[in-house]
Design brief:
- A 4-stranded antiparallel sheet has the order 2-1-3-4.
- It is built from 9 helices and 4 strands; from the N terminus they run E-E-H-E-E-H-H-H-H-H-H-H-H.
- It folds into 2 domains: 3-49 and 62-70, no CATH class; 85-323, no CATH class.
- The two termini are 27 Å apart.
- Strand 3 (35-37) and strand 4 (45-46) form a beta hairpin.
- Helix 2 (85-116) crosses helix 9 (304-323), helix 3 (118-132) packs antiparallel against helix 4 and helix 4 crosses helix 5.
- It is mainly alpha-helical and 332 residues long.
- The longest helix has 38 residues, at 140-177.
Length: 332
């Protein structure tokens, strides 16, 4: 059956098939005055103009199958639950097909900002080579200054990159809930969010450093004592287990901090508790997201303007399925 998108008072009620619309009209959950659109229509029309709907079925107007519970005639709002791979991909494709233009614009802005913050850092590297390289002046004071400039721009680039990356995820979360809004791309720079994002990133880096030291240092010591590379290779392989386990929940903590306006401690704690309950499903989604995003490289990287938004929409829908939507996520 054809998919029909329904709005009421400029608020999305979700997307339904023809039978669901007929059932909804019969039960009063949908109104004849609700505006609707389906593929092939030039403009939104009241549901009363849809004359080819099937008669109401015996099934209840509010669907009860696991997939349909996510819609349930509410304004496109989800409750916390489990990841459904099929729903993630179908919702991602449906959203991208109706908002591909703004999604591509957001992706281009994301690329431009991510590249722009790297330029000063790269230029500062030129200063280090000028004063400290083989052909440099050898001036120690200028060398120290050049290193200081590089360190500043490196930290700045790292901070802006994680903040804009979080905003890029949040852009697709809002696109799935209501409609694409470029302003969401910069949500991470809000006064209440950017510091918490950076603190969460700092905790993540510190945790990774601790794990690396615990596993790699003993391997390196044994390698030096035994004069064999086997211990360090084994330690690196074992290192991947805790690194992967820690990284998966944290990948969902960043959008949670922006989405709920919470602190980094609560964001990390909530992410670990929620994701740990379905860790393998979350890992599977992240792997598939990476494969979909990188598939755009086949078309000389231009294809990433399409594959990256679709991949992040899958990621965002998985986030929504696990954490649900807050009551404040009203649909415009």
């Amino acid at each position: 059956m054809a998919t029909i998108f329904v709005n009421r008072d400029r608020k999305s009620l979700g997307q339904f098939n023809e039978q669901e619309v007929s059932n909804g009209l019969a039960a009063g959950n949908l109104l004849p005055t609700d505006l609707a659109w389906q593929e092939g229509m030039e403009a939104w029309q009241p549901l009363s103009t849809f004359e080819n709907l099937p008669p109401p079925g015996a099934a209840p107007a509010i669907p009860t199958s696991p997939l349909e519970k996510f819609r349930n005639f509410e304004p496109n709002r989800l409750k916390p639950g489990r990841i459904c791979f099929g729903e993630c991909f179908s919702k991602a494709w449906g959203t991208f097909s109706t908002s591909w233009g703004v999604s591509i614009v957001a992706t281009i802005l994301f690329f431009v900002i991510s590249f722009a913050v790297q330029v000063p850092m790269q230029l500062s590297q030129v200063l280090i080579e000028k004063f400290g390289g083989p052909k440099g002046s050898g001036d120690p004071m200028m060398m120290v200054a050049a290193i200081g400039v590089f360190a500043f721009f490196y930290l700045l680039a790292s901070a802006v990159s994680i903040i804009i990356s979080t905003g890029y995820i949040f852009f697709f979360v809002t696109s799935l809930r209501t409609k694409a809004n470029i302003d969401a791309l910069f949500a991470g720079f809000r006064k209440s969010a950017w510091l918490q994002i950076l603190l969460a990133q700092l905790v993540w880096v510190a945790a990774l450093m601790v794990v690396i030291l615990v596993f790699v240092v003993p391997g390196a010591v044994l390698t030096a004592m035994m004069k064999s590379e086997i211990p360090v290779i084994v330690s690196v392989v074992l290192l991947m287990i805790p690194l992967t386990y820690v990284s998966v929940p944290i990948m969902f903590a960043f959008p949670l901090i922006v989405d709920r306006g919470i602190g980094f401690r609560e964001g990390l704690t909530t992410a670990f508790k929620t994701v740990s309950a379905q860790w393998f499903s979350a890992l599977g989604i992240l792997i598939l997201v990476g494969l979909v995003a990188m598939s755009g490289v086949i078309l000389c990287c231009v294809g990433m303007l399409a594959t990256l938004p679709i991949a992040y929409l899958v990621y965002a829908q998985a986030y929504r399925q696990m954490f649900g939507d807050p009551d404040s996520a009203a649909v415009d």
